[in-house]
Amino acid sequence: MLLLLSIFCLTHNIASSVTDTLTTTIFIKDGETIISSGGSFELGFFSTSKSTNRYVGIWYKKISIQTVVWVANREVPLLNTYGVLEVIKPGLLVLRNDTKNIIWTSNSSMPVQNPVAQLLDTGNLVVKDANGTFLWQSFDYPTDTFLPGMKLGRNFVTGLEVYISAWKSYEDPAPGEYTYHCDPTGYPQNFVKKGAVLQFRTGPWNGLGFSGAPGLRKNPIFSYEVVFNAKEVYYSYKLLGSTITRFTLSPNGVGQRWTWDNQTRSWIIYLSAPNDNCDSYGLCGAYGSCDTGNSEICGCLDKFSPKDPDKWANRDWSNGCIRKVPLDCQNGDGFLKYSGFKLPDTHNSSYSKNMSLEECRRVCLNTCSCTAYSSLDISNGGSGCLLWYGDLIDMKVISGAGQDIYIRMASSELGSDGKKRVLIMSLSLSLGMLLLGFSLILVLRRRKKAFPKLRKDGIPGDILDEVHIDHKKDLELPIFELSIIIEATNNFSINNKLGQGGFGPVYKGVLREGQEVAVKRLSENSMQGLDEFKTEVICIAKLQHRNLVKLLGCCIEGIEKILIYEYMPNKSLDFFIFDRSRSGLLDWPKRLHIIQGIARGILYLHQDSRLRIIHRDLKASNILLDADMNPKISDFGTAKSFGGNETEANTCRIVGTRGYMSPEYAGEGLFSVKSDVFSFGVLVLEILSGKRNTVFFYQGHNLNLLGHAWNLYKDGRELELVDSRIVNSWHSLELLRSIHVGLLCVQQCPEDRPDVSSVVFMLGNEVLLPEAKQPGFFMERTIVNAEMSITLLEAR
Ligand SMILES: *[C@@H]1O[C@H](CO)[C@@H](O)[C@H](O)[C@H]1NC(C)=O
Ligand SMILES: *[C@@H]1O[C@H](CO)[C@@H](O)[C@H](O)[C@H]1NC(C)=O
Ligand SMILES: *[C@@H]1O[C@H](CO)[C@@H](O)[C@H](O)[C@H]1NC(C)=O
Ligand SMILES: *[C@@H]1O[C@H](CO)[C@@H](O)[C@H](O)[C@H]1NC(C)=O
Ligand SMILES: *[C@@H]1O[C@H](CO)[C@@H](O)[C@H](O)[C@H]1NC(C)=O
Ligand SMILES: *[C@@H]1O[C@H](CO)[C@@H](O)[C@H](O)[C@H]1NC(C)=O
């Protein structure tokens, strides 16, 4: 007995000193951990925030926020803190509860002499024999986190499939409905599935990345690869630098790429997928083409028409499209090139790595069931051959980064295309003519707007439903009585008025307990129904980020619709930067901090929630400052919220502020995340220069601040733009970078503008930035035009 006790004490001691290995004599109890040799990961017992259930898991050791990357007993929590994790013969890692019952175990069929379990510095927990014989690893059974070095896919020798499986909820690590797979059928592509139903497809691997996920390309931080051969098919990624990064699948099926920001000590989401409505698998049916740039996002590919025109007109696109002219394989078909697409589902396809495109064409032509072909690998200018059989499904227009595909056509369909090309070529002969054409199109489009269609969201019903249910479940927003608001604001006294927001006046209020609040009274004519308002409020209440103004509650009584926000003592950004004396209080580090904070706030609105919020009215007066000069975006409540899948829409009512509106929004009412990026760019240049874009006047030329900044940038004299009160602060590299980023954000073409995640990254890292192209609205005159078009739109 004594002997046993002393062994117990001994082993206990060894385990709690730093080790990365468990053996048959060294085990850990709840409260003890092991740490990987490089100090990156830690293995031990944990609970989620609202539960007392105990789980064995692995988390980052170097990160202050506990971030669990793997869980052992997902489905069988320990109910108390008496769990023990140990290695037993003949080679298993087991978790026992306080009655010594095994409630979870690793899996291995091979018996070994001397089993050990070691936590590697990659986050992989490996069970092996002390002599090195491998038995089991946690990387083969991932939970919701895909770590660098994991191999997602299928091993044809062992039959093992490694896939990511989301948690049931943020509180419950048990397997939820969503999974993420690398599917080797036909040709490798990754899927998010809900149960057995496909939700999202990355598109086939094209050597650089996945066809439909241009964000997942090799870059200075990562390299991605897909390995496929007779033995295995897997997808994997490596970190090239020291950034801490992970990929997760959230409980509601959103894949997210996170990077740890060591400055702010928080995780930032750089990418999420599905990302827009067109990412909904097969939304437009066979031969449909999904384009978020169109108000009707589903269209048929050229030479195809809706199979069921009535349903199609009612936005039921599931039946897809059919050929206008049927194929005639015996008498010779041909191929038509379609450019700029996410390639269709490769479930029914075959490939050859070293066939040329011409050979590929010949093979496809000679196989009547072959419907299309493309290059397999575009990393080296195009090589290999990918052949499709059967209908082409889940194609999406990807502007800028799409691929070419050659689709089989009846020979009679081939001629007209040739003519069209000639026409386009002759048009592009003269740049002037092209510009003329462009302005004509603008005018025509504006005319068309005079007869607006009622906007129906392209959001599939189930997404909306889901959002709806979510809200009901956890609405914890206080409702204020009108009498309390009236008392707090002195009956909306003019003396309490803080300002006039886009949707109504804002008052300062003091609640009985002494808490200061800002009260926004929505104007009656805000055109918003009660249900819509409620939904909106519930959405806003869920948005919590340190760079967004916090909603404290709301009040709905009679015709009154009121929002109660936290009060910001330092007013708004315009109060400082445009004021000669006060702007001296904001040196460059403070301003950079503000710029980065705004960017993070926007990133949160655009990407972090299943609901995508486009602000539409970002401007200096909507950036409030707290007591520590931290920026907080306000007025996002009345912005446009989307199902997480939609990125762009048309609006009948233009809200926004002159000088901050992007050309496509002011001119055509077309807004997207990129219109917010434009406004952000304007803000950056204003913060740097201390001048308003709209009232900018410089030595008689008729450029606005954007035009002026661009001219200086072209001449390499950007620093002349910078507010003289901050230019001396030895930060010229940061200043140059920020001006450059600002100019990238205000480029004329929405596609050229970076998304906010890239903006956050570019502001914080020394990366090579692309050349900025000409900004939109760079002359005072163009703005006047835009205003005219706004009145025109509102007048109808
Ligand atoms: C330990 O696990 C066994 C088997 O699952 C179970 O029957 C027993 O109730 C558990 N004991 C406690 C205290 O949870
Ligand atoms: C353990 O491995 C065997 C084959 O080696 C397999 O049939 C079984 O499903 C595995 N169990 C678990 C829980 O993975
Ligand atoms: C390690 O030991 C196992 C048996 O415990 C044996 O099967 C295996 O061949 C050994 N491997 C090496 C590399 O010695
Ligand atoms: C984060 O910053 C701290 C100092 O603030 C430093 O000690 C640590 O090594 C950094 N971690 C990473 C991962 O860069
Ligand atoms: C693949 O072919 C089968 C059989 O023709 C068909 O049922 C299935 O829908 C096809 N899958 C795709 C993704 O085209
Ligand atoms: C493909 O490449 C391999 C090795 O490079 C070569 O052995 C094989 O003959 C090639 N196949 C064809 C069809 O060109």
Summarize the SSE layout with pairings:
Elements: H1 2-16, E1 21-22, E2 28-29, E3 34-35, E4 41-46, E5 55-60, E6 68-71, E7 84-88, E8 92-96, E9 102-105, E10 115-119, E11 125-129, E12 134-137, E13 145-146, E14 152-155, E15 161-162, E16 164-169, E17 172-183, E18 189-194, E19 197-204, E20 222-228, E21 232-239, E22 245-249, E23 255-261, E24 266-273, E25 288-290, E26 298-300, E27 304-306, H2 309-313, E28 321-323, E29 333-342, E30 349-352, H3 357-365, E31 370-374, E32 385-389, E33 395-397, E34 403-410, H4 415-429, H5 431-449, H6 461-473, H7 482-488, E35 497-501, E36 504-510, E37 516-521, H8 530-542, E38 551-557, E39 560-566, H9 573-577, H10 588-608, E40 612-614, E41 623-625, E42 631-633, E43 640-642, E44 648-650, H11 663-668, E45 670-672, H12 673-689, H13 705-714, H14 732-745, H15 756-764, H16 780-795
Parallel strand pairs: 25-33
Antiparallel strand pairs: 1-10, 2-7, 3-4, 4-5, 5-6, 7-8, 8-9, 10-11, 11-12, 13-22, 14-15, 14-21, 16-17, 17-18, 18-19, 20-21, 22-23, 23-24, 25-26, 27-28, 29-33, 29-34, 30-32, 31-32, 31-34, 35-36, 36-37, 37-39, 38-39, 40-43, 41-42, 44-45
Helix pairs in contact: 10-12, 10-15, 12-14
The structure holds 2-acetamido-2-deoxy-beta-D-glucopyranose (6 copies).
Family: Belongs to the protein kinase superfamily. Ser/Thr protein kinase family.
Protein name: Receptor-like serine/threonine-protein kinase
Domain Apple: 329-410
